[in-house]
Design a protein that fits this description.
By secondary structure, the chain is α+β, with helices and mostly antiparallel strands. It folds into two domains: 141 residues, no CATH class; 126 residues, Histidine kinase-like ATPase, C-terminal domain (Heat Shock Protein 90, 2-Layer Sandwich), CATH 3.30.565.10. Helices cover 66% and strands 10% of the residues. Strands 1-2-3-5-4 form a five-stranded mixed sheet, covered by helices on one side. The radius of gyration is 38 Å and the shape is rod-shaped. The two termini are 54 Å apart. 30% of the residues are buried.
Length: 371
């Protein structure tokens, strides 16, 4: 019922067809040219008027049809054409309309088979039933063949365009999801690290409040600075313009580990690192240090970075206890985000677990990594 209401409502054809179908409908006027020059019985005139009234809704509806409904429209149109062949040679227009309707069949091979059947029927009807076979066949075949082929080709092309548009929409949708995941990973890395630092400094400030007011004030000032920096970084991350430097993260790691009472040993070679690789390494260092502070219970941490010409290797190790923290690290968003970022530029991330010596995270990235 909804489809019928839709077909009766304006526009009568799908918008992608434009105004052309309305112009093609005027071809029905050619059938009336016979009655301008040759008188005809009133019954024939009435039958012609009734035929046009019946055919016009079928013609406009055929633009909405697909599959079996299209076949039905073609069959009815061909039947009308055959019934009118003995009485009016200009009714070959119905064969042309039927040829155009073949485009409604989604499968191109079936559409061409149907077109061949329509044209064959038109040729047979013209040769056997028309008073003037030549007058009937010239428009039926001369116009029907190119119209039918053009309609089928245009229909196939239109469906290909629709499929391409759907594919493009799917790609855009997947890109949106990927961007959301990227922002989610970045926010996790940013806020997880900073909030851990703020928590540690707040605990330290609470302990210093009664015995060293000046040190307590310094810690509170550091908390304010960290919160402001985190806010700025979050804003940059949301807009997609954040690029964290490794030197900045090393400095931040020193401050965070010192606040947690963890001794840091650095073995970082001065290297020229591509921007994409530096960003991935900086975020990996931040996540590793955050997890050491949160879960490891470590007293020492070693950060090393070296290159061999083909790859740059960042290693973060601690002497912590491997307990529940390992489970959290393995299954948390942080490790997943690090692996995804490394894989995106051709690198890999590895975890080395040792019950006696803690955990070591190794990030290996190609020296020529680009985003």
């Amino acid at each position: 019922m909804k489809k019928i209401k839709g077909m009766l409502a304006w526009p009568w054809v799908p918008p992608e067809y434009g105004k052309a179908p309305y112009l093609w409908a005027f071809a029905l006027l050619f059938m009336l040219s016979k009655y301008v020059f040759f008188p005809a019985p009133a019954l024939e005139l009435a039958a012609m008027a009734l035929t046009i009234v019946v055919f016009l809704p079928l013609y406009f509806a055929s633009f909405w049809f697909e599959g079996e409904r299209t076949v039905l429209a073609i069959v009815v149109t061909c039947l009308i054409a055959v019934l009118w062949v003995p009485h009016n040679g200009m009714t070959s227009s119905f064969i042309i309309y039927a040829a155009g309707m073949c485009a409604g069949l989604r499968d191109a091979r079936r559409a061409y088979v149907a077109l061949g059947a329509v044209l064959s029927l038109g040729a047979f009807a013209g040769l056997t039933l028309a008073p003037d076979a030549v007058q009937y066949l010239i428009p039926a075949l001369g116009i029907g063949i190119p119209v039918g082929i053009a309609a089928v080709m245009d229909g196939t092309l239109a469906r290909s365009r629709q499929a391409l548009l759907r594919a493009q929409e799917e790609v855009a949708h997947m890109a949106t999801i990927a961007e959301r995941e990227r922002i989610s990973r970045d926010l996790h890395d940013l806020l997880g690290h900073t909030l851990s630092l703020i928590t540690l400094k707040a605990e330290l400030a609470g302990k210093l409040a009664e015995r060293d007011l000046a040190a307590c004030k310094r810690e509170i000032a550091d908390i304010e600075t960290s919160a402001r920096n985190a806010l700025a970084e979050v804003r940059s991350a949301v807009t997609g313009y954040r690029l964290t430097g490794l030197a900045h993260e090393l400095a931040s790691a020193r401050a965070s580990l010192a606040a947690a009472g963890i001794t840091l040993t650095e073995q970082v070679e001065p290297l020229s690192i591509p921007a994409a690789a530096e960003n991935v390494m900086a975020l990996a260092l931040r996540e590793a240090v955050t997890n050491i502070i949160r879960h490891a219970g470590a007293t020492r941490c070693t950060v090393s970075m070296a290159g061999d010409g083909e790859a740059i290797v960042l290693r973060v190790a601690d002497n912590g206890v491997l307990a529940a923290g390992v489970h959290a690290l393995r299954h948390g968003n942080g490790l997943t985000g690090m692996k995804e970022r490394a894989a995106a530029i051709g690198g890999r991330l590895a975890l080395n677990l040792n019950l006696e010596h803690g955990l070591a995270l190794e990030l290996r990235l190609p020296a020529g990594a680009t985003a």
